[in-house]
């Protein structure tokens, strides 16, 4: 297992886990619609098309974003 | 018909989605306003507050979504927000706004111009929110912005067209649509902006903070339409002196 951070919260994931797998697990745990979010890894936007080929590394900082009301 | 980039709009009223008491009220007010373009913001997911769940109903309503970069304080943050929004919404349209000062929310012209240049190069349809600065608006047009969005007065202030003199110059010079954004607090002010020749206005607070947002949305729809029709009809000339509209001596035999 390795430690990563999702929106500042520590999380243990399997070594070599894909971003898709990590996000699917996280979305189930937290009732999030993955279709409506964007993800950045270490301050770089991770395009959806790369999620399944991206392997999480120890100490990666994932940030999840969504749209909200605004002017 | 208003055309921005390759997209046509029948309504010249754009609306923001912020500050409404409830999502249902926001959706009803937007429907009443007949707006076809609405703004949204990008925010880091907060598990404690949950999501607004506004995206799907907005998509279902058929309006075009315009994500903004509010919260960005510089070029880098604005580009990051635009990239996130594109991932989330699948749109390359972005309302570019960079206002580091939280008190007056004045847009930073230097950061905005540079971010606009980069985002245009990356293929984004950029609609920058700026002060009513005619020189800056020309520069933004030169770097490829699809429209310019000069402010009437500070965001959310409902002060109306404090920048009228400069809006007139921007409208006269622009070769891209001019959308008066921010500060429009009453339908009469929206009418006035349209009478000046603005291509569209963006309204949020005036509708959202009304006691009856749905009725106010409808009022703004009428106001924008009236202002546009008046502009097309052509306003009469303004004169310092009086000019009689009736014969003054016809029945007195003087």
UniProtKB/TrEMBL annotation, chain A:
Q: Which Pfam families match?
A: ThiS
Record SUPFAM superfamilies: MoaD/ThiS
The protein's superkingdom reads Bacteria
InterPro entries given for it?
Beta-grasp_dom_sf (IPR012675), Mopterin_synth/thiamin_S_b (IPR016155), Thi_S (IPR010035), ThiS/MoaD-like (IPR003749)
Xref: PANTHER family? SULFUR CARRIER PROTEIN THIS (PTHR34472:SF1)
Q: What is this protein called?
A: Sulfur carrier protein ThiS
Give the organism the record lists: Shewanella fidelis
Q: Which gene encodes it?
A: thiS
């Amino acid at each position: 297992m390795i430690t990563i951070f999702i929106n500042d919260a520590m999380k243990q994931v399997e070594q070599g886990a894909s971003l898709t797998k990590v996000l699917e697990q996280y979305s189930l745990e937290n009732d999030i619609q993955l279709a409506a979010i964007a993800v950045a890894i270490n301050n770089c936007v991770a395009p959806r098309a790369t999620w399944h080929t991206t392997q999480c590394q120890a100490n990666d900082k994932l940030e999840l974003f969504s749209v909200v009301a605004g002017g | 018909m208003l055309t921005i980039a390759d997209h046509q709009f029948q309504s010249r009223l754009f609306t923001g989605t912020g500050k409404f008491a409830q999502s249902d009220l926001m959706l009803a007010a937007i429907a009443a306003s007949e707006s076809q373009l609405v703004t949204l913001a990008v925010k880091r997911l907060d598990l404690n507050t949950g999501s607004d769940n506004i995206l799907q109903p907005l998509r279902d309503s058929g309006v075009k979504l315009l994500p903004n970069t509010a919260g960005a304080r510089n070029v880098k943050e604005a580009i990051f927000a635009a990239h996130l929004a594109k991932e989330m919404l699948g749109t390359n349209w972005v309302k570019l706004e960079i206002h580091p000062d939280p008190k007056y929310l004045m847009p930073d012209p230097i950061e905005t111009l540079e971010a606009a240049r980069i985002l245009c190069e990356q293929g984004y349809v950029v609609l920058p929110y700026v002060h009513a600065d005619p020189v800056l608006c020309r520069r933004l047009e030169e770097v490829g912005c699809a429209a310019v969005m000069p402010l009437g007065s500070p965001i959310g202030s409902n002060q109306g067209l404090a920048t009228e003199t400069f809006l007139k110059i921007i409208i006269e010079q622009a070769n891209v649509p001019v959308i008066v954004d921010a500060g429009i607090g009453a339908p009469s002010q929206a009418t006035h902006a349209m009478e000046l020749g603005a291509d569209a206005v963006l309204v949020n607070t005036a509708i959202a903070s009304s006691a009856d947002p749905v009725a106010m949305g409808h009022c703004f729809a009428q106001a924008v339409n009236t202002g546009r029709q008046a502009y097309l009809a052509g306003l009469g000339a303004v004169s310092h002196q009086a000019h009689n509209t009736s014969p003054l001596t016809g029945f007195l035999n003087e």
